[in-house]
Amino acid sequence: MFKKLLGFFSSSIAIDLGTANTLVYMHGKGIILDEPSMVALAVDKSGMGKKILAVGQEAKVMLGKTPGQIEVVRPMKDGVIADFNVTEQMIKYFIKKVSAQKILMSVPPTIVICVPCGSTQVERRAIKDAALAAGARRVELIEEAMAAAIGAGLPVESPRASMVVDIGGGTTEVGVISLGGLVYANSIRVAGDRLDEVISNHIRARHGLLIGEATAEEIKKQIGSAHPDTDNGEMEIRGRSVYDGLPKKIIVTSSEIREALHDALDQMVSAVKQALELTPPELAADMIDSGIVLTGGGALLRGLDILFTETTQLKVVVADEPLLCVAKGCGMALDHLSDQRVYLNRNK
Ligand SMILES: Nc1ncnc2c1ncn2[C@@H]1O[C@H](COP(=O)(O)OP(=O)(O)OP(=O)(O)O)[C@@H](O)[C@H]1O
Ligand SMILES: [Mg+2]
């Protein structure tokens, strides 16, 4: 009886704790929070510790524009926790924010949270512990590729295999799913963040201009492309000259950015090819019909689907709302928490 009551009053939420964005799904409500995984910290008055100034969207607007005592950090790196305390605080803040929307959330929530396939036991434990420390009553983990496949609407329960490639900020996850489980999963730490880094290195080396993280990401979104068919002209950018330290503006072209991105994109292609090679033959054969579905924010890079189609000879499509797939998939796993489906990593 008590358990039943507890279930009634408490809320279940699913969290896509991403390197770039954190999304929260609440049972019966869908996605109720979508914010950058960023925290602004300031040295507190004693000068000893750091106190949290802002989290999420509010912290992102401060990126690259903060005075000396304030820094904006991303506590997740490569899909795993880089700073435990700040991650815990960030999760706590987001839980608090969503509970404010639900009066009945007086009992600590059950949380389903996703982890990259390539994360170690220690890294998984850290995510679980951070969620528990942030106030969760129970935490279940789900592999990100599995969540992406469910959220993209792939027939994960079917004996016919399907492949999902989730390109986030920190990791690219490749998963082959059949009969409700991951038959093959791999994750490489090359994704959206690496593309931004490659773009800033290119701009510095070719044009002698220093740009911030936000500008590099903007270049990728505006004129970035993975295939010549999707060339998107040119763009004026501003930064600081490495030669005289003065502000300067230059024009960069879509084709030079594509050239700069080539090697990093090639690593993603290799990860997909490796998955096809290592998948059992019968399942690999299924992919001729089912093709590959791309999810994650990285899937929005222009021409990425064409690049994958050309390099794998398979049909490649970008999922609807790729940025939301993992959160939706975590949420659907949460909705099925009581039936014994095999989506979750119960022993991890
Ligand atoms: N239009 C776009 N073109 C290219 N890249 C984009 C676009 N929109 C978003 N991105 C990139 O998508 C990435 C964020 O995607 P997503 O939210 O799926 O990552 P994440 O889940 O936080 O990261 P991870 O799963 O690796 O922990 C960022 O690198 C962002 O720059
Ligand atoms: Mg993700």
From TrEMBL:
Binding site for ATP: 19-21, 169-171, 217-220, 297-300
Coiled-coil intervals, chain numbering: none
Highest rank taxon of the organism: Bacteria
Record's subcellular location: Cytoplasm
InterPro entries, alphabetized: ATPase_NBD, MreB, MreB_MamK-like
Gene3D superfamilies per UniProt: 3.30.420.40
Gene Ontology MF annotations: ATP binding
Keyword Nucleotide-binding on entry: yes
A GO-annotated cellular component: cytoplasm
Keywords: ATP-binding, Cell shape, Cytoplasm, Nucleotide-binding
GO biological process, one term: regulation of cell shape
SUPFAM superfamilies in the record: Actin-like ATPase domain (SSF53067)
Keyword Nucleotide-binding: yes
PANTHER family: CELL SHAPE-DETERMINING PROTEIN MREB
Record-stated family: Belongs to the FtsA/MreB family.
Subunit structure: Forms polymers.
Function: Forms membrane-associated dynamic filaments that are essential for cell shape determination. Acts by regulating cell wall synthesis and cell elongation, and thus cell shape. A feedback loop between cell geometry and MreB localization may maintain elongated cell shape by targeting cell wall growth to regions of negative cell wall curvature.
Protein name from the UniProt record: Cell shape-determining protein MreB
Organism: Aquella oligotrophica
